[in-house]
Amino acid sequence: MLANDPVTQARIDLTTALRAAVRHGLNEGVCNHFSMVVPGREELFLVNPQGLHWSEITPGDLVMADGEGNVVEGKHRVEATAFYIHARIHAGNPRAKVVLHTHMPYATALASIRDGRIEMCTQNAFRYWNRVAYDEDYGGVALSNDEGDRMCRAMGDKDVLVLRTHGVIVAGPTVAKAYDDLYYLERTAMVQVLAMQTGRPLAQIDVATVAQAAGQIAADTEQAALHFESLKRLLDRDEPGWRRLST
Prior knowledge:
The protein has 247 residues and is of the alpha+beta class. It has helices at residues 6-23, 80-92, 105-111, 123-126, 145-155, 175-196, 207-219, 223-238, and strands at 33-38, 41-47, 63-66, 71-73, 98-102, 132-135, 160-163, 167-172. The chain has one domain (6-238): L-fuculose-1-phosphate Aldolase (3-Layer(aba) Sandwich), CATH 3.40.225.10.
């Protein structure tokens, strides 16, 4: 595999997101999954394997699979829920080139509250204006195509799906954009939960101001990529060997 090959770059990017998620406290044991449609082979996707901690995954560990649960490339297994959630969202939503699913604590805390929502009370929250869907129908552990399809329908044309009592799914066109949204979603939820703990009312901002700020944030198309490249530099500095392509 060549370093400038699009598939190799996809492997490096997905590994960056997995390892960065550990640094940011977004992971949970060896559970949850990050996936990306394989460049040039839209019927396949890359996904982290079953049983490896995200901090030890390298680009060579990632598994290439199809929507039927078959491992096309890689020596590891893939957890069943990765197929039933990720494969179905990739198949049902052409915009979802990258799908990130976590049980990150603060966002999941909001998902555990009756009628919990990302409230428009902080600047970080404004970036999610009109971009979040809420799935109120918890269906147990996702172990069927029907459940994955249901989640895909619940997500609709939004970039974020909050799964009641479960966690979150973030989709995007690139790993950099999706991870940036995942990272700031958790930061948004964290500040909101901390504010709620004071017992004082949240300072809700008027719709016109929120919409204006959301547009200003969306207009900055460079920041997510800059953030992501900085994460790679930190990994290069602190975790030698993380870019390894062979296993």
